[in-house]
Design goal:
By secondary structure, the chain is an all-alpha fold. The protein contains 18 helices and no strands.
């Protein structure tokens, strides 16, 4: 039930950009930049000595959400106690409780209910903010009905979201259609959006994912290429995600080998650590496959050797087939 959907790509810095009352004793943006670049321990060390204010508690909750859900829960509870009427705090409470519900057994339903209520409270506080509406839609898309998930409710909120942010509204509509296995409808929604909002990277990326699921790799490749090149700073995570998919399609399809190598090399060199991006060991593996196809067997074998003992069991199995 993890509330982290492809319709919601955003960086940690963008998410917390609305916080204005930042303590002068600590640079929260600098700490979050460390986190975004894969240095969570440094970020935590920067923030923890200054954790009296809810802004720092909120930032720590966001960081720990990716590495220690129990600790994330402790920090978000402190932030809620200090600032219960903050939409940002309620939103992050919804995210963390949703993630905890996914990993729980006996307490899953209770945590899921808390997640939904937190998203609803965030919308009550800031009804014109699309971020919080997206969070609630994400809950209803991913939570089972026994936990309160309801695609009909998601549809109603998607219509509301479209009035606040037309592009995100279209993405939500497409994801609802996809959840209902109405794949052609989902593709039509995104294609209509691309006709209206020409070269929008979020629409292109999500349309690419749908075409890829339907095994239309040629159409998916074109859309991923578009999204990887046209994304601005706000959509840079989408751009990197698209670069990975360009490389993946090249590795799977046996076409576009040179471009796939270029895309994955850029991804490995420049993509930040981010929850919405594929872990870099998988990008290394795809790159090795392309090196193999390009006759660069020694370079491929070097990567396979580096990955053969990876903690990712599925990746380890794939790598050992190549050695």
């Amino acid at each position: 039930m993890r509330i982290s959907l492809k319709i919601l790509p955003m960086t940690v810095l963008l998410y917390l950009a609305a916080i204005t009352n930042v303590s002068a004793a600590v640079d929260i943006e600098a700490a979050l930049a460390e986190f975004e670049n894969g240095r969570a321990e440094q970020a935590i060390a920067m923030l923890t000595p200054h954790a009296e204010g809810y802004e720092v508690q909120l930032a720590l909750a966001k960081i720990y959400e990716t590495i220690d859900l129990k600790e994330a829960g402790n920090w978000i509870e402190k932030a809620v106690a200090a600032q219960p009427d903050s939409a940002e705090v309620q939103y992050q409470l919804g995210v963390i409780r949703g993630a905890q519900a996914q990993n729980a057994t006996f307490s899953a339903l209770r945590l899921a209910k808390q997640s939904r209520k937190a998203f609803e409270r965030a919308i009550e506080i800031a009804p014109e903010s699309p971020i919080y509406v997206r969070g609630l839609i994400g809950f209803h898309l991913t939570a089972p009905s026994i936990a309160g998930g309801d695609l009909g409710v998601a549809q109603r909120w998607a219509e509301r979201l479209e009035s606040l942010d037309p592009v995100q509204g279209l993405l939500a509509q497409a994801n609802i259609a996809r959840a209902q296995k109405r794949y052609e409808d989902a593709i039509q929604i995104l294609e209509k959006g691309l006709a209206t909002y020409e070269r929008n990277p979020l629409l292109a990326f999500n349309a690419g994912l749908l075409y890829q699921e339907q095994q239309n790799l040629d159409a998916a490749f074109v859309l991923f290429e578009q999204a990887s090149q046209d994304a601005d700073q706000e959509n840079r995570i989408t751009a990197f995600a698209s670069l990975y998919q360009v490389g993946r399609i090249a590795a799977v399809s046996g076409t576009h080998t040179e471009r796939g190598i270029e895309a994955l090399t850029t991804y490995l060199e420049a993509a930040p650590a981010h929850e919405d991006l594929v872990p870099k060991p998988w990008a290394q593996f795809r790159l090795a496959l392309l090196y193999d196809r390009d006759g660069r067997r020694a370079e491929a074998q070097t990567i396979y050797e580096q990955l053969k003992d990876t903690e990712d069991g599925r990746l380890r199995k794939e790598v050992r087939k190549k050695i």
